[in-house]
Amino acid sequence: MAKKVAVLVVNPVNGAGLFQYLEAFFENGIPFRTFAIADTTNIKTNSGISIQTDDVVANLKKKEDEYDALVFACGDAIPQFKDNVDKQYNQDMLSTFKDFDNKNKIIIGHCGAALLLDGLGIGKGKKVALHPYIKSMVTGAVATDDGYVIDGNLYTAQSENTIPALIPHLIETLK
Question: Tens place of pLDDT for every residue, the chain, 175 residues?
Fold first, then answer.
């Protein structure tokens, strides 16, 4: 039986990355639900396209037992987080990452995801792929130049352009 996936969607999200995950899950019969990291399920891509998610991150808190994996669909995540760090939805996102990691659930992300994981201590000592512009900001994880990296429960891709190389490994693990 396929594993169930919770997909965290920042606002605005990089649609190119998000849709690669969702399409791969849909085409391979992997059940998923999308959760906006926002106060509302109505979000946009960073190119302005409106998207309706299934729910908000506040309603995912403490429900990690219902899911086998967590995807962080990046977009303008780092500047948005910096500008909205005090918002409850960002605090809910951070605690959700920790809850999934504490249960050794699969955590998937690209671009700036590894920086958030590093900041939470989740990536400590693990190899990660992340956007080259933020590589020097990672202190506890082992930042690589690889297109994608799988290290323990962490599956990371450098950017939306390297997600396609990671997808077959995700599908194999999640099916």
Answer: 889 999 999 988 989 999 999 999 999 999 999 999 999 999 999 889 999 999 999 999 989 999 999 999 886 666 666 777 889 999 999 999 999 999 999 999 998 899 889 999 999 999 999 989 889 999 999 999 999 999 999 999 999 999 999 999 999 999 9
SS3 for 58-81, per residue? HHCCCCHHHCCEEEEECECHHHHH
Structural contact between residues 72 and 57, judged by C-beta atoms closer than 8 angstroms: no
* 27, containing H or E segment: helix 15-27
Report the distance separating Cα 28 and Cα 116, nearest Å: 28
Residue given tokens 């930042």 in the structure block = 143
DSSP-derived 3-state class of residue 147: coil
d(CA 141, CA 56): 28
Residues near 105 by Cβ (< 8 Å), separated by ≥ 6?
64, 67, 68, 69, 70, 153
What size, in residues, is the chain? 175
